[in-house]
Amino acid sequence: MTAATPPPAMEVLPWQRFGEAARDLARTVYASGWMPDLVIAVARGGLVPAGSIAYALGVKAMGTMNVEFYTDIEETLPDPVVLPPLLDTSVLAGAKVLVVDDVADSGRTLQVVMNLLQEGVPSPEPDGAASSESPTPLRVAHLPSEARSAVLYTKPRSIIEPDYTWRRTDRWISFPWSAQPPVTST
After folding, report:
1. pLDDT beyond 60 at 166
2. pLDDT tens across 111-133, in order?
3. CA atoms within 13 A on the CB side of 60
């Protein structure tokens, strides 16, 4: 009999602790002296944290960017893909924007969103030109005056350093909104 592969080391964030984490992260943003005009959630993982942080900061303007990358635990698509519906980018013009996600794991999803908001394209090539073969044929015409990022967790392997992080871990994180499998029957 062969032993089953052990599950990856996991960090569990229950609902109660999540509420405290979101509030702590909002306090960190506030303490920095920078306040956003608009909070953008990276869907789906960033939806719940973004709403909580927006409430805590008193920010009523919110938007979402739907980005697909992770397909399962430790399984990803080759590249992050921005999916419809797309954000009405006219609301970005001149705004201070806080992008919120649950985790900067590889950091690739957050990097795509931040590149869109800072440079108008999802992933600049090393020479600064946008790739015509990008999986995300999207351009942002109206750029914010400043975009910053906030995540609950940052992992050591992340290729981007978020502006605000609640905790750092190298473990797989079980968030309360994704801890259970999807409802498939009644």
Report:
1. yes
2. 999 998 988 766 554 444 444 44
3. 0
Query: Residue 101 burial (CB < 10 Å; 0-12/13-18/19+)?
Result: buried
User: Residues with Cβ < 8 Å from 164, sequence gap 6 or more?
Assistant: 25, 28, 29, 32, 148, 149, 150, 151
What span, in angstroms and rounded, lies between the C-alpha atoms of 71 and 2? 27
Say what the pTM is. Answer: 0.84
Cβ atoms of 104 and 153 closer than 8 Å: yes
CB atoms within 10 A of CB 184: 5
Three-state SS at 158 = coil
- 95, 37 in Cβ contact below 8 A? yes
Residue 10 · residue 168 · CB < 8 Å: no
What contacts 59, CB < 8 A, 6 or more positions away?
A: 35, 36, 37, 38, 39, 98
Q: Which CATH number fits domain 10-174: 3.20.190.10, 3.30.2010.10, 3.40.50.2020, 3.40.50.300?
A: 3.40.50.2020
